[in-house]
Amino acid sequence: MLTNKTIVLGITGGIAAYKAADLASKLVQAGAKVEVVMTEAATKFITPLTLRNITGRPVVTDMFEPASEYSVEHIALAEAADVLVIAPATANTIAKLAWGFADNMLTCLVLATKAPVILAPAMNDNMYQNPVTQENLAKLKKRGFAIIDPGYGRLASGKVGWGRLADIETILGTIRQVLGKSGDLAGRKIVVTAGGTQEPIDPVRHIGNRSSGKMGYAVAEAARDRGATVTLITAPTSLPDPTGMEVVHVQTAKEMKSAVAKAVAGADALVMAAAVADYQPVTRAKSKIKKDSPTLTLELVRTPDILSEVKGDFIRVGFAAESDDIIANAKKKLTKKNLDLIVANDITSTDSGFGVDTNKVSIIDRSGKIENLPLLTKREVAEKILDRVKLLEMKK
User: For a pLDDT cut of 90, what percent of the chain falls above it?
Assistant: First the structure.
């Protein structure tokens, strides 16, 4: 997604400037060409040499610097950018941009570029919440700038409040979302489920499974990066909420079914990657069950079959996590649930299935055609699934 993209990273003079080094590193690792532009104040917090070593590119600090390849025709850098990201963006730079100032290389680039601009503010909480700063941000947002809200926490002053630079993963997710707006799934609505549902036994215990949610989250993020409007419905996981999509948190199969039924209105596809518990206790104890007996008997009843019961005209993709007769069991599930595609994988494999970052799956369609994929990252698997969804949509 970021491979061969030219990302101009603007760094301004705030204490959070040191975090820009991590952002630059992750962008380079993702295959992007990163051009760093620093204000004079930024160089007081982090050296250009640090950024140059990370990106392998010259760092621009002065519009009139003779050594810069952009020193004379700085418009070239503005035109080369696929996206311009300013992180951190100080109150001073935000004010300059809001009022159209062009007194340094970075503000000049913002005025000159036609690429989307992303701002990640970071500053003292009082400065951030000052009406002037809020008005400036609102003005820039109205002009089409993407604003990444700062986080809440301990600030450089020692206070606790709003003003921390957003998490690097949130900034990366926003960059991917902005770059993907014209992707091949633009204008589509895709609903994705993830994680393993939990069916309460008492206020402490539940029936659950080992799903980490990684596969579903990978599908949701891949769909977002290809331009889709995404709703992620997730059972409890240890994963942070992805940026750039609606995230709905549920616990039980019943709650997931209700959320899916609501979300699929107008949807183009439902990718049911969640591991929904097959059974739930008939009754839930109101207080913790004590260990007064050496045995405990639970009466269980089937949970709702979400894929079969949720109605609507959309592409349906299911998953079959199997331990034996993988293909045969997956085909039965595909037919029984009236699916367009089913993704089958062997959960007994140590490098495929629950809790790992890779998966080896087979994708089966209505005709029974099987596509056996090699071991891939879950993100790569997600892209393959969405490729098939796109083909099905084109045939409708």
Answer: 85
CB of 142 closer than 8 Å to CB of 97: no
Show me where the domains of the chain are located: 6-179, 189-395
Residue 79 carries which side chain, given as an amino acid letter? Answer: E
**DSSP one-letter string for 56-109:** SSPPB--TT-TT-TTSS-THHHHHH-SEEEEEEE-HHHHHHHHTT---SHHHHH
What is the DSSP annotation of 210-253?
Answer: ---SHHHHHHHHHHHHTT-EEEEEE-S-SSPPPSSSEEEE--SH
Query: Does the fold of domain 189-395 match that of domain 6-179?
Result: yes
| Coil/strand/helix, residue 137 | helix
Cα 47 from Cα 42, distance rounded (Å): 8
Catalytic residue among 92, 126, 130, 209: 209
Can you read off the two tokens belonging to residue 296?
A: 């405990």
CATH classification (class only), 189-395? alpha beta
Q: Looking at domain 6-179, does it have CATH number 3.50.50.60?
A: no
Q: Which residues contact 20 (CB under 8 A, 6 or more apart)?
A: 9, 11, 36, 46, 51, 87, 88
CB atoms within 10 A of CB 227: 18
What tens digit of pLDDT does each residue of 241-289 get?
Answer: 999 999 999 999 999 999 999 999 999 999 999 999 999 999 999 999 9
- State pLDDT tens for residues 306-352: 999 999 999 999 999 888 899 999 999 999 999 999 999 988 887 77
User: Taking Cα atoms as reference points, which of 104, 37, 103 lies closest to residue 69?
Assistant: 37
Bond from prior residue into 88 cis (ω within 30 degrees of 0): yes
Residue 206, C-beta contacts closer than 8 angstroms, at least 6 positions apart: 198, 199, 200
The continuous run of DSSP H or E covering 308 comes out as helix 306-309
Is there a catalytic annotation at residue 209?
yes
Locate 5 and state its tokens: 């993209």
